[in-house]
Amino acid sequence: VQRNPGESEFHQAVREVIDTLGPVLRKYPQYAESKIIERICEPERQIIFRVPWQDDRGEVHINRGFRVEFNSALGPYKGGLRFHPSVYLGIVKFLGFEQIFKNALTGMPIGGAKGGSDFDPKGKSDGEVMRFCQSFMTELFRHLGEYTDVPAGDIGVGAREIGFLFGQYKRITNRYESGVLTGKSPHWGGALVRREATGYGSVYFMDEMLKVRGESLEGKVCVVSGSGNVAIYTIEKIQTLGGKVVACSDSDGVIFHKRGIDLNLLKQLKSVERRRIADYANEHGDAEYIPGGNIWDIPCKVAMPSATQNEINEASARRLVANGCIAVGEGANMPTMPEGVKVFQEAGIAYGPGKAANAGGVATSALEMQQNASRDTWTFEHTEQRLHEIMKEIHRSCYETAAEFGSPGNYVIGANIVGFLRVAEAMLAFGLI
Ligand code: NDP
């Protein structure tokens, strides 16, 4: 805490991992002796830079850009870029730290990183977003490369932004280096299923957690927070597997639609017209828009937080449990506060932490890198099948490892230990670097 003052989200993420590693360090004292934990907590490199750009009226704005290259023991740095006004070093470091373990869990050869800016894309024109992305990449390009650091999207960074960033990278370097960014459009080097992967993957993970308990999504009432990339494809896969999603949200309010969310309308509003979910209720008379509402007040069997960090506090966790929720799967990164996690664990409900449950996005990014490296393109079906197998394997390894270390059913412990051991082993092999 003294070493990294004011970075509360980073402290929270580190504490959550370290609290679970005691049994591992007892079993493998070599990791404590070589100070692997201290080394893992210190990013290999942190880049902070100025991003000047001009809006449509000619006014100049200065934002701050970040890239924290946390750990490259298993492969090139890999992790998304987030554009949101709340972004500062503590958020980027928490996300980068989690990314190390998540990426290790996928079993793919990728290290951990995260980046972004305090730029707010909301209400900006395409031209403004393009000029911002070009300015951002004009600094960041020198740190990237298919063997060095490969960013992707996150909050506020979707296919449009990845396109502008790739265009500027290509222009500056004079290299059509497809493998330098993932989440590209399938028209020019992107992988099919990458757009859907985080949401689909989270639902596959949920399905596995439910199976262990002799349950399935069939006929279950579900609530999915957010209404962005992860939320939309989480809703889609839940519906395919027979569940009913009755609510979604954004930072202004909640949509409750008892009959089940109309996904085509949600996609049209959010992905095509870039409007707000408040407009959803104008199209469906039987849907209710609750401005400033708390989505976790809505009774459900399955909850899938898919918006942002710390969106479920202790009171919301208690409400979910009291309302009969039996499973929580995190599409977002660290959406449940530590006190909320405790509530879920004490209640004995299935709880899938983000670093395991939402790893399908980055896993499919690694599949995109494979396709780029071999100049190949895979079908949707083949790629989705790979994603499904990866999520099943992540679930299996977390589940079995939790049991092996004396905490059966505790996916937090399982995920942290599996991820840590994979990274720690490589770090030890490389010597003191
Ligand atoms: P999007 O930008 O597509 O959507 C984000 C959604 O979350 C929007 O509905 C947004 O509402 C809401 N949201 C964002 N910030 C806040 C906030 N501070 N308070 C309330 N609501 C908020 O992002 P993604 O769907 O890509 O990301 C969602 C989560 O999933 C993040 O935690 C991200 O780190 C995580 N994730 C994403 C992956 C990916 O592949 N995209 C991979 C793994 C994890 P509004 O429009 O009002 O801001």
Describe the structure.
The active site is at 114 (proton donor). NAD(+) binds at residues 198, 229. Belongs to the Glu/Leu/Phe/Val dehydrogenases family. The structure is a single chain. With 433 residues, this protein is an alpha/beta fold. Among the domains are: 43-181, Rossmann fold; 195-357, NAD(P)-binding Rossmann-like Domain (Rossmann fold). 47% of the residues lie in helices and 15% in strands. It has helices spanning 8-18, 22-27, 29-33, 36-41, 89-106, 126-140, 159-173, 194-212, 229-240, 263-272, 280-283, 314-322, 338-347, 354-357, 360-373, 380-404, 411-429, and strands spanning 45-54, 60-71, 77-83, 112-117, 149-152, 221-224, 244-249, 253-256, 288-291, 302-304, 327-329, 350-352. α8 (194-212) crosses α16 (380-404). It is globular and about 55 Å long. The two termini are 23 Å apart.
Break the fold down into its secondary structure elements and pairings.
Layout: H1 8-18, H2 22-27, H3 29-33, H4 36-41, E1 45-54, E2 60-71, E3 77-83, H5 89-106, E4 112-117, H6 126-140, E5 149-152, H7 159-173, H8 194-212, E6 221-224, H9 229-240, E7 244-249, E8 253-256, H10 263-272, H11 280-283, E9 288-291, E10 302-304, H12 314-322, E11 327-329, H13 338-347, E12 350-352, H14 354-357, H15 360-373, H16 380-404, H17 411-429
Parallel strand pairs: 3-4, 3-5, 6-7, 6-10, 10-11, 11-12
Antiparallel strand pairs: 1-2, 2-4, 7-8, 8-9
